[in-house]
Design brief:
seven-stranded mixed β-sheet, 44% helix, globular, Rossmann fold, 289 residues, alpha/beta
C-alpha cells in the first residue's frame, strides 16, 4: 500500500525537494545519482504529473539542479569533518526528508535529524532512522535539542534551505549558543544575499502576512558573521554551484547563465563556521591574563 500525500500540506512541501533530486538524477546522471529519492517517490500515492511538467522546464530543472547540488556541497563538508573525527555526531538541522546521513555514514559516526513534530512524523513513516541514527522532534529555537546530541567525539552540523525563514536575531542567538555548546564543531549551511532571499521567501511571506522582510536572515558577505560570536574560530564560504565541483561545463547555456546569476547577483554560497575548541579558549584566556 502506497503512502498517501495530501495536496497543500506539509507532506507535499517535503516531497517536492525529494522529487527535485530524483528529476535531477534523471537529467544529469553523470553528476547525480539518488536511488533513495526514487525509492521514496515510487512508494507514494501522489500524482507527480503537474510537478514533473513544471520541474522539467528550463527554469524548473535549474531549481532541481540547485537542490541536488546543495546536498552534494553539504555532504562534502560533512565528509571533510569525518576524516578527522570519524565517530562524530552528524546533525541535520531542519532535516525534512533529506537522507544525507545514509550517504556519509562511515559505520562509526552518529546521525541526528531535527525538525518540527509534524515533519518528523512524516519522516518516521517514509525515511525511518537507521542504525546509529536518531530523529528528533524539536523547534531549532528550543535549545533543549542540544542536550540530546552526543558530541563527545566531535560534531558537524548542516542545514539546507533552512535559515532563510528565520529572523536574523534568532539565527545569531542559535549560532552563538551552538558554538558555546559544541566547542570544536563545524556548521555548514547555504545562504544568499537579501535580493535572493526576498525572491525565495516571496510566496511564503505573502501568505503569512509578513511585511518586515529585512528582519529575516540573508547574508551579503560571510565576514558579517565574524562579529556574531567570540566562539567562532573562522568563517569561510564557497560558491554554491561551483565551489565544490564545477558543473558549469555539464549544463546548458541557459543554466550557465543561471549559475552566473546565482554567483553574481544573489551571492549564493555555502558558509562554513568553525567553532573554537576548548584549547583555543584556554589559549585566549592565557593571552588575556
Amino acid at each position: 500500500m502506497k503512502y498517501h500525500i495530501e495536496k497543500n500540506t506539509v507532506q507535499e512541501t517535503l516531497v517536492i525537494p525529494l522529487f527535485g533530486r530524483l528529476v535531477c538524477s534523471e537529467h544529469f546522471p553523470a553528476l547525480f545519482s539518488d536511488p533513495e529519492a526514487k525509492r521514496i517517490c515510487d512508494s507514494l500515492d501522489y500524482d507527480f504529473a503537474d510537478k514533473r511538467k513544471k520541474m522539467e522546464s528550463a527554469a524548473g530543472l535549474f531549481g532541481a539542479l540547485e537542490v541536488a547540488q546543495r546536498q552534494y556541497d553539504l555532504r562534502c563538508e560533512v565528509e571533510l569533518y569525518l576524516k578527522d573525527h570519524p565517530k562524530a555526531a552528524v546533525v541535520n538541522l531542519g532535516c525534512g526528508l533529506d537522507d544525507t546521513f545514509s550517504k556519509v555514514d562511515n559505520g562509526q559516526c552518529k546521525g541526528y535529524n531535527i525538525d518540527l513534530p509534524d515533519v518528523i512524523r512524516v519522516r518516521n513513516d517514509l525515511l525511518p532512522a537507521g542504525a546509529r541514527e536518531t530523529n528528533i522532534s524539536c523547534d531549532l529555537n528550543d535549545f533543549s535539542w542540544m542536550n540530546r546530541i552526543d558530541a563527545s567525539d566531535g560534531a558537524v552540523f548542516f542545514a539546507a534551505g533552512v535559515f532563510y525563514y528565520f529572523r536574523t536575531a534568532d539565527v545569531k542567538t542559535l549560532f552563538h549558543t551552538m558554538a558555546e555548546h559544541f566547542p570544536g564543531g563545524v556548521l555548514a549551511f547555504d545562504s544568499c544575499n537579501e535580493r535572493g532571499a526576498k525572491l525565495m521567501r516571496k510566496t511564503w511571506l505573502k501568505e503569512a502576512g509578513i511585511t518586515d522582510v529585512s528582519a529575516f536572515f540573508s547574508l551579503e558577505n560571510e565576514s558579517q558573521l565574524l562579529g556574531w560570536s567570540d566562539c567562532f574560530a573562522s568563517v569561510t564560504a564557497k560558491s554554491y554551484m561551483r565551489g565544490y565541483r564545477d558543473i558549469y561545463k555539464n549544463v546548458s547555456f541557459f543554466h550557465k547563465l543561471m549559475i552566473r546569476f546565482c554567483d553574481g547577483l544573489v551571492n549564493m554560497k555555502i558558509i562554513r563556521i568553525v567553532f573554537r575548541g576548548r584549547a583555543n579558549d584556554a589559549e585566549r584566556t592565557d593571552q588575556s591574563a
